């Protein structure tokens, strides 16, 4: 989601000792050459660079087949100096969209939903001529984003912290927002699309969306740290604070928040390990039949001027790195951001989570952003990024939404340590 927020400040004091472990889970058949080991030292150094650039705390998991590396750096809480740990629960924001799209595509495979049908066939009370189910899932509907209406200032963010929003109300706010284009014309990211998609899921199945996704995906995969908080403001398991640099220079914690306003579009809590398990199962065809997985991976350019940089499918996108395309999604809510990218076959995987957002100007180099994407290139390609060219290209392709300042606030400047 793209949210306007205030100026950045210098991050809190230097962090704790690096927490990293390389795990070799299981053996390799004698007839097969073992894969090269994960670059543990480079990965540890990469997290340190994110911390040194100004991020209060960061953790990650990287997988290559049965090899697993986990690490963390910095503080979960800058006041108490509680250490960040790699197994923390984290709000994953828009990665929730991949869970929802996968569930809807299962219904497509069962003949209960048609991608190219008008979405009004399922939700006649919201119908818009020319908008199909597919257009909701690949963000080509032209429907505006409710974020732009609800979150226009820091005061709005604080006010909504404890407010419960029914999905119907959020959907109608988004449908009343300025349109981004004609149906099917071009890609324009809008959270309203996935609120409507969640309402379709409930209409078709007759069950709450969270219950249906849990029944079909979360429980069968054993994602025991993944759940929907509904109207609860609290993350139930061990977790970090979620910081936004505020107007007065403080790091304000938004880890406690009523996530009903992000229903369907970004309300899931998970861990890096659960996300890697989910995406491996998805990309290897364990959740969808081949036809539906192919539909999910049918993409539109995220930026028509650079069609080879990134493409958005149905709740899933690809981005080009020096070693080729990787698939996944990123997500952000106030104070928590996550990026989860994977090789096309789900073998090589990387998920990184950070506990500060909205810290820099969009479109301008920032050391935290550079370090984050350099880590991902190292994790997925096996060698450090040509600093910072490849990292900046990846960041530009997905246009990280945590770079947007609040209207009228002082222009942020990139922070150091």
Number of domains: 1
Strand content: 15-25%
Shape: globular
Number of helices: 12
Largest sheet: 10 strands, antiparallel
CATH superfamily: DD-peptidase/beta-lactamase superfamily
Annotated CATH architecture: 3-Layer(aba) Sandwich
Helix-strand topology string? EHEEEEHHHHHHHEEEHHEEEEEEHH
> How many E strands?
14
Task: Please tag this protein with its features.
417 residues; Beta-lactamase; ten-stranded antiparallel β-sheet; two-stranded antiparallel ribbon; alpha+beta
Task: Give an overview in words.
By secondary structure, the protein is an alpha+beta fold. It has one domain (19-23, 38-403): DD-peptidase/beta-lactamase superfamily (Beta-lactamase, 3-Layer(aba) Sandwich). It contains twelve helices and 14 strands. It has helices spanning 40-53, 96-109, 133-137, 147-150, 154-160, 167-176, 191-205, 209-221, 272-283, 290-296, 367-381, 389-398; strands at 19-24, 57-64, 67-77, 82-83, 90-91, 243-245, 251-253, 269-270, 300-301, 310-312, 317-321, 324-333, 336-342, 348-354.
């Amino acid at each position: 989601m793209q949210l306007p927020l205030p100026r950045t400040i210098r991050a809190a004091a230097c962090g704790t000792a690096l927490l990293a472990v390389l795990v070799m889970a299981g053996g390799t058949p004698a007839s097969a050459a073992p894969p090269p080991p994960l670059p543990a030292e480079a990965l540890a150094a990469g997290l340190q660079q994110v911390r040194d650039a100004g991020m209060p705390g960061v953790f990650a998991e990287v997988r290559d087949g049965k090899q697993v590396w986990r690490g963390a750096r910095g503080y979960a809480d800058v006041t108490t100096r509680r250490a960040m740990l790699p197994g923390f629960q984290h709000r994953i924001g828009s990665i929730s969209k991949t869970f929802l799209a996968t569930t809807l595509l299962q219904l497509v495979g069962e003949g209960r939903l048609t991608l190219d049908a008008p979405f009004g066939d399922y939700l006649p009370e919201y119908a818009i001529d020319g908008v199909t189910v597919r257009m909701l899932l690949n963000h080509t509907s032209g429907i505006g984003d409710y974020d732009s209406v609800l979150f226009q200032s820091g005061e709005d963010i604080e006010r909504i912290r404890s407010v419960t929003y029914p999905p119907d109300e959020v959907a109608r706010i988004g449908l009343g927002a300025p349109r981004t284009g004609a149906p099917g014309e071009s890609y324009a990211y809008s959270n309203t699309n996935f609120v409507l998609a969640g309402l379709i899921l409930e209409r078709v199945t007759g069950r709450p969306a969270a219950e249906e996704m849990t029944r079909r995906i979360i429980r069968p995969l054993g994602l025991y740290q993944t759940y929907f908080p509904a109207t609860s403001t609290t993350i139930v398991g061990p977790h970090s604070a979620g910081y936004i640099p505020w107007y007065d220079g403080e790091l304000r914690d938004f880890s406690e928040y009523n996530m009903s306003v992000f229903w369907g579009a970004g309300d899931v809590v998970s861990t890096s390990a659960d996300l890697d398990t989910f995406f491996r199962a998805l990309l290897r065809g364990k959740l969808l039949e081949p036809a539906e997985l192919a539909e999910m991976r049918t993409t539109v350019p995220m930026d028509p001027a650079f069609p080879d940089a990134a493409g958005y499918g149905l709740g899933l996108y690809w981005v080009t790195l020096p070693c080729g395309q990787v698939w996944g999604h990123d997500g952000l809510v106030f104070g928590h951001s996550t990026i989860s990218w994977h090789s096309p076959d789900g073998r090589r995987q990387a998920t990184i989570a950070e506990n500060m957002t909205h810290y820099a100007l969009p479109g301008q180099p920032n050391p935290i952003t550079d370090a984050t994407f350099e880590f991902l290139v190292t994790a997925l390609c096996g060698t450090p990024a040509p600093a910072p060219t490849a990292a900046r290209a990846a960041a530009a392709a997905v246009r990280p939404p945590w770079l947007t300042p609040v209207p009228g606030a002082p222009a942020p400047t990139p922070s150091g340590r």
